[in-house]
Amino acid sequence: MNTTSPVDSYLIHIPVMLSEVNHALGVDQAGVFLDATFGGGGHSRAILEANPANEVWAIDCDPEAETRAKILKETFSDRFHFYRTKFSAIQALPEVFYDGALLDLGVSSFQLDDPRRGFSFRHSSTLDMRMDSSSGISAETFLNTASRAELIEAIRDFGEERHWKRIVNAILSHRGMQETKRSDLFVELIVSCYPLRERFRKIHPATKTFQGIRIAINQELLELQEALSKIFTRLKPHGRLVVISFHSLEDRIVKQFFREKAGLTKSQTILTQVAHTEATIISKKIISPSKTEIARNPRSRSAKLRVLEKL
Question: What confidence tier does 275 reach under pLDDT thresholds 50, 70, 90?
Answer without folding.
Answer: low
